[in-house]
């Protein structure tokens, strides 16, 4: 009989924590999970799931307009924000219930409350002390807002899904994928959108051609996209907000959404007191097996600040469960992780950017194409799709894939498998395309982009 109440006690019932707990229990471990907010974590409640539902909702405005080109007469359309929010809430509640049943069916005990680490083998939940052989920290991340005068007037992605009314005007601050996605969501729902980013260009870390291409497409749709701009202060002026920029300009708006990043949610839960080492930004430091500086305490997901994606947290949970309770000795491979941004149009990417590839390989070949999607040959909409392949010249292996266009995420998932298998450009070329689709472009690209034109290809 174990000297502890549980073999594993997980703090946080998000995607990573739930997966690690369920799989550990399936391997015979006695497991408990504590959650003080909502089952499913950020992704299910205030992230991926409601965000994509909102993306779907926002795109109907264009779909109604485009229908005319195909012979449809669409009557007067109107949008009701409370209906969308209510239907979204209903779906999230359904998913919360699924997570609860998954834990229960796996035999995992659920503690509804805030857990804090007391020592390397003890946690406290709702005033109750519980012991465990291993403790797993899977507490995710939390949105951050810069410390500027008037910051209390801004909201984050935590609150945006629960707005009582849809604003007529919105300022979105940030250059990451959350900011880009909400710019598209609000614009599609009829909001006058201004997006501000303090840097020279948004989506840092993505391929430069993708970044440039998306900026053009977003501006076509009406987003007022401004770079090298930052807010100095926010003031409430009656029913609106007055935003004063560092360059002296003033803007009026009905809502200010800060999407300037998320910090690891590691403070105030006893980690440092128990000897767990944290990075300067609060990230829990772990080794290749997700062990912290304390042998009995582990961490996965956004709180370790490696790759803040739900499927990555799930994969980390799978690896950890196998290593702890199945005798495995696995290290998670973070290379070639497919990624989608549900901007409008969407981004899909896997592998290296062109800049990364040129730093990694002695010579690379670039294949790129920009065209009007078949759908818009009848709608007349001025929206383009962009596709790009990056190939290591020496091995002929495709090392980078990038797309901006409808359903880019769907296309990218399949290409991600190919890159993980080490597919070459010759194998892409030997694959017969599905006609007529946009995706067939990736197996019909034959002309290399001249080196001197690489930077202009998306313009």
Q: Please tally the helical runs, counting DSSP H or I stretches of 4 or more residues.
A: 12
Mean pLDDT: 96
Which percent band covers the strand fraction?
Answer: 15-25%
The amount of helix comes to 25-40%
User: Into how many domains do the coordinates divide?
Assistant: 3
Taking pLDDT < 50 over at least 5 consecutive residues as the criterion, the unreliable ranges are 453-459
Query: What is the general shape?
Result: globular
CATH class of the largest domain: Alpha Beta
Number of strands: 21
Calculate Rg over CA atoms. 24 Å
User: What's the N-to-C terminus distance?
Assistant: 67 Å
Coarse structural class: alpha/beta
Largest sheet: 7 strands, mixed
Q: Judging by the overall fold, what is the CATH architecture of the largest domain?
A: 3-Layer(bba) Sandwich
The name CATH uses for the topology of the largest domain is: FAD/NAD(P)-binding domain
Describe what this molecule looks like in 3D.
The protein is of the alpha/beta class. It has 3 domains: 6-142 and 263-325, 3-Layer(bba) Sandwich (FAD/NAD(P)-binding domain), CATH 3.50.50.60; 151-260, FAD/NAD(P)-binding domain (3-Layer(bba) Sandwich), CATH 3.50.50; 339-450, FAD/NAD-linked reductase, C-terminal dimerisation domain (Enolase-like, domain 1, 2-Layer Sandwich). Helix content is 30%, strand content 24%. The chain is built from 12 helices and 21 strands. The protein has helices spanning 15-26, 41-46, 48-66, 81-105, 157-160, 177-188, 208-221, 310-325, 354-360, 376-379, 408-420, 425-430, and strands at residues 6-11, 31-35, 109-112, 115-119, 122-125, 128-137, 141-143, 169-173, 192-197, 224-227, 231-237, 240-245, 250-253, 256-258, 262-264, 297-299, 339-341, 347-351, 364-371, 385-392, 398-404. The strands form 5 sheets. Strands 1, 2, 3, 4, 5, 6 and 16 form a 7-stranded mixed sheet that branches. The radius of gyration is 24 Å and the shape is globular. The protein starts with 5 loop residues before the first strand and ends in a 29-residue tail after the last helix. Residues 453-459 have low confidence and may be disordered.
